[in-house]
Design a protein that fits this description.
- The protein is an alpha/beta fold.
- The chain contains 20 helices and 16 strands.
- Bound molecules: phosphoenolpyruvate and magnesium ion (MG).
- Phosphoenolpyruvate binds at residues 291, 293, 332, 432, 453-456, 504-505.
Length: 543
C-alpha cells in the first residue's frame, strides 16, 4: 500500500513502524485510575517532575543538537511554569473534583485557543501544548518520560512535539511520518537539522496493528510504502546505497571552484532562514547566501524584532559566512507567512495575490526603514559582505520607491554618525511575478542583480496556488514552457544590461536543468545547504 504525504526533510529509508500517540495515556481516564491521592498537591508535584524533566531535556538538546532546538523545549518549560495554567487547573479541579479531568479540560481549552489563532506559526504549536499535557499526566502517574525505541524505527504519529522527538533516542529513528503537521511545525525544522527524513500530512490509517510493520519512507518522492515486497525493499536498499555513494563522492568537492568544463564560473550559494542555517551553509561549502528569508525572525512573536536585534542577526550571519556575499531579502510577510501583530486585515480569498512582501513594506515606513537600517549597519561592519533584494516586485515604481528608502536610511545613519561611510551594498530584485520577468529590461536598469523566485513565479504563471490541494498536482509543472520563457527573458535582459541573474527558488536544485540555466545566461544558483555539493558536482560535469 502506498500513501503520499508532504516532504519536509529529504531521505530514503526502510524501517519498522513505531506508533507514538499523544493519547498514549488514554488508559488514564480519571483520578480513580491513579494510585494515591489526586489532589492539587499531587498536581504541583507532577508539575515539578515534568519541569525537571524538561530542564534536563533542555540541557541535553543544547549540548547535542543546538540552541534553536533547545529554545523550543524552553518555551514548553515556560508554559508549564505559567501561573495562569495553575489557576485554570485549580478552577477546573473545583468544578470536576477530579484531577485527571481537570488537566484534560484545561489543556483542551488551551488547544482550542491556539487553534483559533490567526498566526499560522503559533497555530502549529498545538502539538507542543498537547505534549505538555501528556508530560503532566505521565508525571502524575509516575510513568517514565523515556520511551524505548527498537532500532530503525519509523515514528508514525498524528503530530508529535519537538520535545517528544528530542526525548527519543535519535540513533534509533529512521524517519518521521506525521498524519498532520505544517511545514512550519517544529518537527519539520527539527527533522531537517537532525537529517532524519520526514513527511507530514500523510494519511496513513490504522492504529496498534501498524506497530512493527515494515515500511519504506521515500520522502524524496513524498511517499510511504507499507508492507513492501521483498523486491521493493531490495531496490530501495540499493537506491540508498547509491545515494550514500553520491554523498561520499561529493564530499571531495569541498573547496573546489564551481565552474563548467568550458570555464564558466557559477556562484553556488545557499538559501537560509536563520543564524544556525548560516553556519550550516558555511559548513556545506556554500560560496555565499543567495537568499536569507528574514521573515522567520518576524513570525511567532508579539511584535517585530528591534533594530539592534536585527542588526545582530544580520551581522552574525555575515560573519558566519566569513566575508562571502550574503543576500538579505527584505521582509516577505503575508500570504502563508503571518505575523498577527502587523494587523494586515482581511486578505480576501486569494492571500497569495494580496497584501504581502514589498507591498507592505512600501506602506509601513517604520517597519521597512528599521530593517534597512539594520542591514546597512551590519554591512558597515568589517568583514561583512552584504547585498539586499526586494521580493514580489511587479513594477519599476516599486523598485524606485524602495531604492529611495535605501538612500534615506543611509543618509540618516551617516548624519547620526551611526556609520562613518556608506557601505558597498548591491541591491537586486526577485523576479517572482510574470510582470517582473516581462519588464526585466526596465528593471535591469535600476538594480545590480536579479534572483528568480521560481516557487512564486510558477504559481503566478500557471495560476496554481502553491499551498493548494493535491488535486492541483498534475497541473503544477515546474518545467512548463511558459516558465522557461520567463526565465530566458530574465537572464537575457540581465546579460544585455551588464548585471548578473541567478535562481533561488526550488527549481535551482533540479540537476537536470542546470545546463539550460547556464546556457540561458544564469550565473548564480542558490539552493538548500544540503544540495550545494551535489549541484557543484553537476556543474563540473557540464560544458
Ligand atoms: C520563491 O518564490 O521562489 C522564493 C525563493 O521565495 P519563497 O519560497 O520564500 O516565497
Ligand atoms: Mg517567493
Amino acid at each position: 500500500m502506498e500513501v503520499f504525504g508532504q516532504q519536509v526533510s529529504p531521505g530514503v529509508v526502510v524501517g519498522q513502524i513505531h506508533l507514538l500517540d499523544n493519547s498514549a495515556d488514554d488508559e488514564l481516564q480519571s483520578s480513580s485510575d491513579l494510585n494515591g491521592a489526586a489532589d492539587l498537591d499531587a498536581y504541583y508535584r507532577a508539575k515539578e517532575r515534568a519541569v525537571d524533566a524538561l530542564d534536563k531535556l533542555y540541557h541535553k538538546t543544547l549540548q547535542e543538537v543546538g540552541e534553536e532546538e533547545a529554545s523550543i523545549v524552553d518555551a514548553q518549560r515556560m508554559m508549564l511554569l505559567d501561573e495562569d495554567v495553575d489557576d485554570a487547573v485549580r478552577r477546573a479541579f473545583e468544578k470536576e473534583q477530579d484531577l485527571v479531568k481537570a488537566i484534560e479540560c484545561t489543556f483542551k481549552d488551551i488547544v482550542t485557543q491556539f487553534e483559533a489563532l490567526e498566526d499560522e506559526y503559533l497555530r502549529a504549536r498545538t502539538a507542543d501544548v498537547l505534549d505538555i499535557k501528556v508530560r503532566l499526566l505521565r508525571a502524575l502517574n509516575s510513568t517514565s518520560f523515556e520511551i524505548e525505541l527498537p532500532s530503525n524505527s519509523i515514528i508514525v504519529s498524528d503530530d508529535i512535539s519537538p520535545s517528544q522527538a528530542l526525548s527519543l533516542d535519535r540513533r534509533q529513528i529512521a524517519a518521521f511520518v506525521m498524519r498532520k503537521g505544517s511545514s512550519t511545525s517544529h518537527i519539520a525544522i527539527l527533522a531537517n537539522s537532525l537529517r532524519i527524513p520526514a513527511l507530514i500530512n500523510t494519511p496513513i490509517g490504522g492504529g496498534q496493528e501498524l506497530i512493527g510493520r515494515t515500511a519504506i519512507v521515500d520522502s524524496l518522492s513524498s511517499r510511504v510504502i507499507l508492507d513492501p515486497s521483498v523486491k521493493a525493499v531490495e531496490e530501495t536498499k540499493s537506491h540508498i546505497f547509491e545515494l550514500e555513494k553520491v554523498r561520499a563522492q561529493v564530499e571531495n568537492l569541498r573547496g573546489k571552484v564551481t565552474e563548467t568544463r568550458s570555464g564558466k564560473r557559477i556562484k553556488l550559494y545557499a538559501n537560509i532562514c536563520s543564524v544556525d542555517d548560516a553556519y550550516t551553509a558555511a559548513e556545506a561549502d556554500a560560496e555565499g547566501v543567495g537568499l536569507f528569508r528574514t521573515e522567520f525572525m518576524f513570525i511567532g512573536r508579539s511584535g517585530p524584532p528591534s533594530l539592534y536585534e536585527q542588526f545582530d542577526v544580520y551581522r552574525t550571519v555575515a560573519k558566519a559566512m566569513c566575508g562571502r556575499q550574503v543576500i538579505i531579502r527584505t521582509l516577505d510577510i503575508g500570504a502563508d507567512k503571518v505575523a498577527a501583530y502587523l494587523k494586515l486585515g482581511d486578505e480576501g480569498n486569494n492571500p497569495a495575490l494580496g497584501y504581502r512582501a514589498i507591498r507592505i513594506l512600501l506602506d509601513d515606513e517604520k517597519l521597512f526603514k528599521t530593517q534597512l537600517k539594520a542591514i546597512y549597519m551590519a554591512a558597515a561592519e568589517p568583514g561583512c559582505n552584504i547585498a539586499i533584494m526586494f521580493p514580489m516586485i511587479a513594477s519599476t515604481w516599486e523598485v524606485k520607491k524602495a531604492l529611495g528608502f535605501c538612500a534615506e536610511v543611509q543618509e540618516e545613519l551617516l548624519s547620526s554618525k551611526t556609520i562613518q561611510k556608506k557601505p558597498e551594498v548591491p541591491v537586486g530584485v526577485m523576479v517572482e511575478t510574470p510582470a517582473a520577468a516581462l519588464i526585466a529590461e526596465d528593471l535591469a536598469k535600476l538594480v545590480s542583480f536579479f534572483s528568480v523566485g521560481t516557487n512564486d513565479l510558477t504559481q503566478y504563471t500557471l495560476a496554481i496556488d502553491r499551498q493548494g490541494s493535491r488535486k492541483l498536482d498534475k497541473y503544477f509543472d515546474p518545467q512548463h514552457p511558459a516558465l522557461f520563457e520567463l526565465l530566458k527573458m530574465t537572464a537575457s535582459a540581465a546579460t544585455r544590461n551588464g548585471i548578473w541573474a541567478g535562481i533561488c527558488g526550488e527549481l535551482a536544485a533540479d540537476l537536470s536543468l542546470v545546463q539550460n540555466f547556464i546556457d540561458w545566461g544564469f550565473t548564480e544558483l542558490s539552493v538548500s545547504p544540503r544540495t550545494v555539493l551535489p549541484l557543484r558536482q553537476r556543474i563540473l560535469e557540464i560544458e
